[in-house]
Design brief:
two-stranded parallel sheet, 15 helices, mainly alpha
């Protein structure tokens, strides 16, 4: 997979200076780059937002009212978003704690809420963070033909309506993950030799994943069908509410930072070299949104500061508001772009415009 090479010099003065400025910030304030007590309390909150409603459903409390029943599934969907963005995300980047065992334990939470940490690390940490918006390498811009995110992707007639139907497809994101997508990725990454980098065989990965899926569907679907006191059709409908909520939320959070008209989507030359350095490439293809909203920052785990996250994924999101000032100031000094959208709604609108543009080209 290391077939693309970023320019070694273009923009390196910027990144070297920026890293020094960031290091000075942590040294001067006598703090570390990892998570703190606020992140630990957030972890408790997000896990509770998912598992407490699940317990209330299983114990029959949700059967008191259909509105309460489906409301609990909706809260589980919000909890799944919070776990994915504000808990699991930091830990799988190694920024949750300075203790690797703690990062591993917290990172494994994704396995019991329907995902798989191995395929996540490969798709997100390796491919997306290294080759952001590069066609054929960044799988976050590969929607299998139903959506066209990049100007270099093949266009189909149906894409002219993607700015309308795309939001409904986003609702299916986590439903794919908990059913078949992880299995497909295991076979794909074995073929590409990426499972070896995670030090796991395909056989072991399939066995692990299958065990996690049995556990997940056991407590999310089977136990509610048996004990909730509601008809099985209601349980299945609630399960869909959970995943439609989580899928739409996670899709919007991750897509708003990269699939925009301001993104450049560069391609390598014939000898597989990129024009810019990796750091400059990240700035050209990443944008922040809603930086003044404390609620958005808290709930999405700082992923509204995507520029800072892509440049320093080893730093916990709890520090992003502070270091964003340093990143912006350094970018201005070196004349490189620092893209920010003022609100979440504004970012949604910009993403919608990009979807329409990609369908009309």
């Amino acid at each position: 997979m290391n077939i693309v090479r970023f320019a070694p010099k273009n923009g390196e003065g910027f990144y070297d200076s920026l890293k020094k400025n960031i290091d000075d910030f942590f040294t001067e304030n006598n703090i570390g780059p990892h998570g703190n007590s606020a992140l630990r309390w957030k972890t408790v909150a997000m896990l509770s937002l998912f598992f407490v409603p699940n317990i209330l459903i299983i114990t029959g409390v949700g059967a008191l009212s259909p509105y309460l029943f489906f409301g609990l599934w909706f809260l589980m969907g919000l909890g799944m978003i919070g776990i994915g963005c504000a808990v699991h995300h930091d830990s799988n980047h190694g920024s949750y704690s300075s203790n690797k065992k703690v990062n591993k334990i917290i990172g494994d939470v994704v396995n019991v809420v329907g995902g798989y940490d191995v395929t996540w690390r490969i798709q997100h940490n390796v491919l997306h963070h290294t080759y952001t918006n590069i066609e054929g390498l960044d799988e976050d811009i590969d929607a299998g033909g139903l959506m066209r995110f990049s100007p270099h992707s093949k266009k189909h007639a149906i894409h002219r309506y993607q700015h309308i139907y795309g939001w409904f497809l986003y609702c299916l994101l986590t439903l794919q993950w908990v059913t078949y997508k992880d299995y497909r990725l295991i076979f794909l990454y074995e073929k590409k030799g990426l499972l070896k980098k995670e030090k796991i065989s395909m056989r072991k990965a399939i066995l692990e994943l299958s065990i996690y899926k049995v556990i997940y569907f056991g407590y999310v679907l089977v136990l509610p069908i048996i004990f909730s006191g509601m008809p099985w059709q209601y349980v299945v409908a609630g399960f869909l509410v959970l995943h439609f909520t989580a899928g739409l939320g996670l899709s919007c959070i991750f897509q708003l930072a990269h699939v925009l008209e301001s993104s450049e989507f560069p391609t390598p030359t014939e000898d597989m070299k990129m024009e810019n350095s990796w750091a400059i490439h990240q700035l050209l293809n990443t944008a922040n949104f809603s930086p003044r909203s404390h609620w958005v920052f808290w709930f999405v785990g700082g992923l509204n500061y995507q520029v800072e996250h892509h440049l320093f994924p080893h730093i916990s999101h709890v520090h992003y508001p502070q270091i964003s000032k340093i990143v912006k100031r350094t970018a201005e000094q070196y004349g490189v772009p620092y893209k920010v959208m003022p609100t979440f709604v504004f970012a949604l609108r910009e993403h919608g415009r990009m979807l329409k543009k990609m369908g009309a080209e």
